[in-house]
Amino acid sequence: MWEKNNSIYDVKEIRTRTTCYLGVGAIDKVDPIMEALSDMGHRRVLVVSGRSSYRTCWGKVLKAFEKHGVSYVHYDRITPNPTVDSVDEAAQMAREFGATAVVAIGGGSPIDSAKSAAILMEYPDKTARDLYELKFSPKKAAPVVAINLTHGTGTEVDRFAVVSIPEKEYKPAIAYDCIYPLFAIDDPSLMTGLPEDQTRYVSVDALNHVIEACTTVAASPYSILLAKETVRLIAKYLPKALRDPKDLEARYYLLYASMIAGVAFDNGLLHYTHALEHPLSAVKPELPHGLGLAMIVPGVVKNIYPARPEVLADVLSPIIPGLEGTPEEALGAAEALEEWLFSVGVTQKLSDQGFGEEHVSKLVHLAKTTPSLDTLLSLAPVTATDQVIEDIYRCSLKPLKASAAVRG
Predict the structure, then answer these.
(1) 196-407 adopts what CATH topology?
(2) Taking the complete model, does pTM exceed 0.85, yes or no?
């Protein structure tokens, strides 16, 4: 395949709304990026990260800061499934320091939090709860630089961010043009230390992005094209990364797949899987987002396949060969997708995480009432009735074949 003739060490400049640097050694681009920020007058920045992963590139970031006269304040308390309180704290830190730009270092949680803080830096009279309860529509944000440390979210090149409101068990999403990162760095050498489960879960996140982006009512030939290539690359390179975490070629193509998946859903948008996962990890914040998606996507495919059989048969062909694109294949396609997920080590279902039949009505309510999730549900290729949402949750409690045997 063409990948063998593409040098992963040749850092490429890929332009979406963000200028993204992709390749082994892309972290070195932090130097000209900081030069550009300094030249634009942004010499005080807020750094947003988790507690430790930022250290994989911190030396080079500090060197670039020092070289170009950029001073910083560092908020390093972002956790998985970050909260509005952390965003408010980071934004307040930025305002007190006089920061005018944001450097995010990490995966989806730090980058999404950084995007959110970047908005609040321009709207000092607003809070993160105002932002995520959709009480205002921002038109501006401080410039964001995203140094990405996982191959899953695509947030380094899109306009989306997700943050939880814990007391309401809400996990809304926002999407504004003003939070496209100005620059992004996608360097696979920063990801060889990802734990095995995280490698699985972030790749499944990218897979879900395109299963949704190619089947929404907003899907286009472009989102379908990107979806098929994303699935092909994940099918080929995820097993390789699991066998050898230091395989830079595997990390490169999983990272590229994640990036184009981000572009795909930036265009085609999302629907059921993300709308129904967000209540899961809002109720249970320790649940990894990618695992939540993996547990419910077979149920989603079962329900939407009859509405988009030709598209899904084509897009999923790298992991489910032999589909003919007929509505009658829906259950078989869903079961085959679940079998593939099990084959790469993602074997849990909702019951393994403590969810049962007694939780379904609450999850349906959250999916229908959490700010922004109604928009995602409105984009689904089949109408998001309570009955459909309930069915997706119920058939995600146990493996599909086991559930079918019980129903039988």
Answers:
(1) Dehydroquinate synthase-like, alpha domain (1.20.1090)
(2) yes
